[in-house]
Amino acid sequence: MGPSTIYIVIRATNRELQAETPLQDVPFSTTRDEDDFVLATRDASRGDAYITTITSCQVFLGNEEKNQIKNLVVNDDGPPSNQSSPYVHSLIDTLQKAGHTVSVVLPHVQRSWIGKAHIVGQTLTPTYFRPGTLHKDDGVTSDRPFNDGGEEWILIDGTPASCVQIGLHHFFKDRGPVDLVVSGPNYGRNTTAVFALSSGTIGGALEGAMSGMKSIALSYAFDSREHDPEVIRTASKLSARLMEKLLNEWPDDVHLYSINVPLRKDVEQKKIVYTEMLQNRWHNGSSFEELPPEEDDRDPNTEEQIIREGGEGHTQVPRRLHRKFKWAPNFQDVRKAVTDAQKGDGWEVLQGNITVTPLVANFWHLPHYTGEIKLEHNKSDLTRESSSNTIYAVVDYPDPYVQPLILQGLRSLEDFSIQQISAVSELQRATIPVLQFTAYESLDFEHAMQHSKTSQVCAYVIRKALIRKHYLSNTVSTWLVKHPDSVLAKHFRPCVHFELDYAEFLDEALVDAWDLNESMAENERKESTGSKNWWILKPGMSDGGNGIRLFSSFDELQAIFEDWEGSDSEGDEEDETDHRKDEDTTENPEDASNQDHAMTSQLRHFIAQPYIDPPLLLEAYGNRKFHIRAYVLAAGALRVFVYREMLALFAAKQYQSPGHSGDEEILDLAQHLTNTCFQDEETKSSSVHQFWRLESTHLRADWKEMVFQQICDVTGEVFEAAAREQMVHFQALPNAFEIFGVDFLVDQNANVWLLELNAYPDFKQTGSDLQDAVVGGLFREVARAAIGPFFGAAYHGSSQMPLVRALSLGRD
């Protein structure tokens, strides 16, 4: 252990320190804080020799040597002033008392809202400032250095960024290299993008970072302009400790920090949290207020010239009043954005917490915008009919993970120029070619129906024959009646569909469920749970695995519904919600993570399906159950493609057959449910894999190709079944396309079973590592196979997304 530090604080009524002889042999230093004298020695081994000789003292022993930090302090509020810069003196005083070196270069006047600017062409002239009494405006300014050995700050007639440059390179050379640039404390918070992008305080820290220095922007968020010295002192002490910690633990990827400290009496009891900066903007008009107009005072010669020109036949230009504008931002936009977001730096400060926002000194580019930009020859944009190779696109996907990938995919269409617009209403004429790639509820289907040759949408209006579990079951069963040899007979487990409002009516709901009743009755006669036939219960209108349960008997099924009823506190007043969500269905993992049960008062439709046991298990992945997520493109009326890049999504825990569970009453669903939305981030990172890279030693070499071929066959068949037999519930329009997330399970014999189809699938579960390889590639293929051909481009197929079914439904 390194040398310790001993601090001795002696209360004294006079200003002279009396010490006996043993102290004189020990190297020590003293600083004075009002009536306190502080002595420090780095020789802990001699501490006992003199501690015993001093009375009326306090002794503080630290285990580590205190590091002296060389700080350069700048701000944008100027020198100490109770009116405009009330905090900087307190921070500097605190840093000095902590034993740190503090060099100070400040703007000579208020320079707020100036960002990281330098004033071009201006010669900067320093003045010299000697601080006075803390929290009093009695400092002294001089045009020349004081040269008397006393404390001296530098004032510069420039910006905070200029102060950093001057302080780093032109003053204080004798103090050695600067360890930390501190910009602040700002008079007010610097949270959210609106404040940060204009802040001179953050601008000073940015300049430090751009000069290769570790830099911190510090801001004090005040609730009152009554400056309580004790509150300010507490905030300064906390800030000094926090900055020292950040400096000692500085990560390589952080250029600067923005810290916001609320000025509250209990600030030391509040949390210190990492936060993101809230992205917000101005909304309510100008940030300037126009002052009352006034007449210009022209000189007599100018006035005479105007009069004569007006009298000699010249057309006199109407005189305009001289106008002035005053900076008067309306912060209502900022406050509303903070309260609406309920997260981020502004929200945390509003809760009284101290925020630390790590930043990079950059206006960061968006990584997905690449390649050449081609300018159109016709610059009239929306005012004239565009050339045949221009597509206007409304792209506003409800997932920021996906949005840039869609744009990247569209830009891969070499035959077209993509012109983004915000809404179809911006088109000068309704017949201009337009693509809508947005959330389902935002699609202008009316425009698409009226202009089927020029307007394309990214979803079919009606497709519940595929995406609703009970409708899907009916689609397959109806198809198999007419096509008993269909591939679906071997790749889809027949379902029992029933409707239920309340658990007490379960027996009535199952009156016609002969297969299910017979299976449960047979299970009752079996003594061994391992030989029972298990069923899986799925709510017909839930997503993300919500409400899925396993059961083998009527009592177990009854208990499931009774448990849900006990959790359903909403009552009957929301009974009608399912009708409004028939088609507007997005696979939403947040719903599943927030709610692991289904409400029978809202979800009346259920299916029960024989449970597929045992599934294919791979030793390399801990023998966990997995399902395959395939992305399927349906285009027009009707071509169906299967994207070759698929995901294998694993359950959180090792699989155990439900009949062999250690406790018959309790099933661990984490062994059976492969939906990643039920998993925490750490588990999820090991649960998502590329299908084609799965490791398997006990299977034949071509098992993956066999599985993929089965998936292609089943996918094509189920879409044809829906298109031909369920025309009311799946209407394949020629000017629509849609991406579905289709889930399959592989059993121990490598036979593929269709589980479900999801509209607007959750792409984000793919993760960042596979984002471009899987999802980015998907949208490039979608653009070439579905979007380009609709607007006239040729398509020659792709091995990455084979065509698995092509139908002619007579709707082109």
Keywords for this structure?
alpha/beta, Stationary-phase Survival Protein Sure Homolog, Chain: A, ten-stranded mixed sheet, 22 helices, disordered N terminus
Describe the structure.
This protein has 22 helices and 31 strands. The strands form 6 sheets. Strands 8-7-9-6-5-10-11-12-16-13 form a 10-stranded mixed β-sheet, sandwiched between helices. Strands 25, 26, 27, 28, 29, 30 and 31 form a 7-stranded antiparallel β-sheet that branches. Helix content is 26%, strand content 21%. It has a domain at 70-224: Stationary-phase Survival Protein Sure Homolog, Chain: A (3-Layer(aba) Sandwich), CATH 3.40.1210. It has 812 residues and is α/β, with parallel strands linked by helices. The chain is elongated. Helix 11 packs across helix 22 (771-790). Strand 19 (434-438), helix 12 (445-450) and strand 20 form a beta-alpha-beta unit. Residues 565-596 are annotated as: Disordered. Residues 565-576 have a biased composition (Acidic residues). InterPro entries: SurE-like_Pase/nucleotidase, SurE-like_sf, TTL, TTL/TTLL_fam. Residues 72-283 form the Survival protein SurE-like phosphatase/nucleotidase domain. It comes from Exophiala spinifera.
